Predict the 3D structure of the following.
Amino acid sequence: MSDGVRNVIIIGSGPAGYTAGLYSARAMLDPLMFAGYMSGGQLMLTSDIENFPGYPQGIGGPEMMMQLREQAERFGLQVEDKNVERVDLSSRPFKVWVEGEEFQAQSLIISTGAESIWLGVEGEEAQKGRGISTCATCDGAFFRDEEIIVIGGGDSAMEEATFLTRFASKVTIIHRRDVFRSSKVMYERAANHPKIEIKTFRSVKKWLSDDNGLTGAVLEDPRDGSIEEISCTGAFIAIGHKPITGFLESQVETDDTGYIIHKEHTMTSVPGVFAAGDVVDTRYRQAITAAGMGCQAAMDVEKWLEEQH
Ligand code: NAP
């Protein structure tokens, strides 16, 4: 076992995790964070954040995450860029295994966020990383002067499509209905872009490819089942996210879709285990709301630890 029993271990390093780290460090709880091998969470894959208060010119996702980390570390947050493999929440102190090593803590804050959902249609598996991606910021530059499609009707799809116009000759947004979940401002920006076309009432039924990679997709109109083909060499799936909770092995109560449920304030079904950010949030899923919930979780941990004495 490493390091004795910590007051709190924070698992996950998005805005929720770092804010929890900042608050618990300032509360002198000497927190330890396992940030994952790719610390910073989804915002590391985001180009510009325009809606986090305090940045009138916007800020790059990776830059913001580096600043959040630096701020929390200044007050004593210890960050390890490692993944948590497994936890045992059956008794206190809780046990956390990282690269085979056991750590113990009186309380945990789970802020592991969420990951992209794939469509799961025929031909997808073989073309992942060979034309089909879920991250425009990561892979967009591979498609210079090519025709790209983006699947989805939410903010992610609008943001990815707009970003991809930097590289692509044409971007087509494919959405399964004609109502968009995206905010009006992001929809308008995409809809008014000269390089972007929006096709509604289309679902991808199957991906098409040859030896060089993706060549297109078969689209179906959900209203009447009619079929058409679209040519593209790149496709970006932006249909939402699912919470990252596999390492918990069902020891914490979740809803039907796997999101952790809060029982009392930010505490989960296991007393002493708290959760914050996209791993619990089915509604807002914003950097600012995740950060706010990270603050709440840290304050709840502080109070809960006091009550245990
Ligand atoms: P989302 O809002 O849940 O939208 C997902 C979209 O994908 C919906 O249009 C949905 O269609 C579609 N979809 C879902 N499953 C599908 C399937 N199997 N086949 C075809 N289409 C499918 O997800 P998101 O866009 O990732 O956004 C998530 C959250 O992050 C939101 O709260 C959003 O505001 C936030 N976000 C904010 C920003 C920003 O402000 N800069 C950027 C990105 C994301 P239906 O509408 O028909 O269900």
Summary: The two ends are 24 Å apart (CA to CA). The first strand starts at residue 2 and ends at 11. The mean pLDDT is 95. Helices lie at 15-26, 61-74, 124-127, 136-139, 155-164, 184-191, 287-307.
